[in-house]
Amino acid sequence: MGSEGPATITIHVTGFKKFHGVSENPTETIVSNLTDYVKKNGSPKGLVIGSCSILETAGQGALLPLYQTLRSAISEKDSTNSSRIIWVHFGVNSGASKFAIEHQAVNEATFRCPDEMGWKPQTSLPVEEITKALAKKGYEVMTSDDAGRFVCNYVYYHSLRFAEQNGIKSLFVHVPLFLTIDEDTQMKFAASLLEVLTSLC
């Protein structure tokens, strides 16, 4: 007892390819470079970066790879007996001037309130605490209750549902374009987010 070592948290990350009106999606760059960036700049104790996947910015194009990523994390959890797995999804909001930590996703058909069984697609992660910790580090960041009505929301909805069914956690973060907040700052933000998640969760 007491010699188990520090608890680890495995974080799997997704981003998106380009889409209409956004020819260079910052999330593709962030996610593609995140593992090397964190290794180069020092990984927080206890953090394991799992998969880093780039999804199509299309509902059905994103869904199959998303579920493959989600299932693979569950298989990994079962084989390592790790109970601390988080999926972090990055998406771009081309009109944003700040980073946005999303509270919830919306199933447009029925979820303006919890469903008849009381379920509402909402993260169980401490969004307010995460946002405050990132703001303390100097980032312009806010919480949001609106993940949009495009593929970001669609992916987040499915991820939250799957996470709840499998005892895992999920978070969606919107980032601005690189024209608004430069690539270096966004890479630092992504690494800081992983550090905050490691310390709070």
Task: Describe the structure in your own words.
The chain has five helices and six strands, in the order βαβαββαβαβα. The protein has helices at residues 26-41, 59-80, 127-136, 151-166, 183-200, and strands at 9-16, 47-55, 85-92, 99-102, 141-144, 169-175. A six-stranded mixed beta sheet has the order 2-1-3-6-4-5, sandwiched between helices. It is globular.
Give the biggest beta sheet: 6 strands, mixed
What is the number of helical segments per DSSP (H or I, 4+ residues)? 5
Distance between the termini: 22 Å
Mean of all residue-level pLDDT scores? 88
Structural class per helix/strand content? alpha/beta
Could you say which overall geometry the principal axes of the C-alpha atoms support? globular
Order of helices and strands: EHEHEEHEHEH
Helix content: 40-55%
Low-confidence sequence ranges: none
Q: Assembly type of the shown chains?
A: single chain
Summary, kept brief:
This protein has five helices and six strands. Helices cover 41% and strands 20% of the residues.
Give keywords.
5 helices, six-stranded mixed beta sheet, 201 residues, alpha/beta, 20% strand
Set down the secondary structure blueprint.
Elements: E1 9-16, H1 26-41, E2 47-55, H2 59-80, E3 85-92, E4 99-102, H3 127-136, E5 141-144, H4 151-166, E6 169-175, H5 183-200
Parallel strand pairs: 1-2, 1-3, 3-6, 4-5
Antiparallel strand pairs: 4-6
